[in-house]
Structure prediction request, 287 residues.
Amino acid sequence: MSNSDLDTDEVADIYDELLKTYQTEWAYRGHRSLHLEYYDEDHDEPGAAAMNTMRVLSEAAGIDSSDRVLNIGCGAGEDSVWNARAHGATVVGVNISESQLDLARENAAEHGVSELTTFNYDDFHDLSTIDDDSMDVVWGLEALSHSPDPARALTAARRTLRDDGRVALTDLFLTVARDELTAEQRDRLERIEDGLGLRISVFTQFEQTLDETGFENVQRRDLTDGIKRCTERRRSFARLAHPVGRVLGVFGVVSDTQLDSFVASSEIDRLLGAGVLGYYLVTADAA
Prediction:
């Protein structure tokens, strides 16, 4: 499987199709996050743990009210809205799904931060709506794993940053080279990537890409243990939902895309348990 096999428009189609699944999850969580939940002693239920992922990343990025934040792959806008509400930051979210952008604008209006947030239709590989040297922080919450070309995405991000800017992201990474995976692990990884529109980077290669695209002082924090409760919960849900979904799929109630996402969620938990996937928080400064 090559990176060129991943079409970003297809990624948007996957997540538009999964909106029905996510809207059920949002009702349970009480907000519109799509990302993995980070559990600790003070955040022990799904809604709070999902917010905690944003809090931990924001703290690492040092975001405050003076910052202009570019949220790449902003989804339904929950983390954009959170940074505006929690810190008074000005946030520009970009996405390639009009339906998710509509939800993001609605979300910002509901929380009273429309004046601090803007949501643009834009591919984070291009960022054609963002001026050079106009941002303080590029924020990516499980965004770059959707990129078939991280170097292109990071080059675009660096262009938008001021000289003292920084990038902050959390994402899934491979802890070993792809050719070191067993045949079974490669199959599991393929189901994850195809089911969720991902291309998961090997972390050591990603570090090199950051250096080559104009970033320095790369810092990594391993959050894997904190998200395992989330992946275990999603795997348990998928174990029940998949067979029911197959039956409902006969009647057109559940789509193949939704079924594939259930499988992918289970495989993420398995590969985390095997130690070949990790969930890392990464920050770096513009060089």
Summary: DSSP finds ten helices and seven strands in the chain. The longest strand covers residues 161-174.
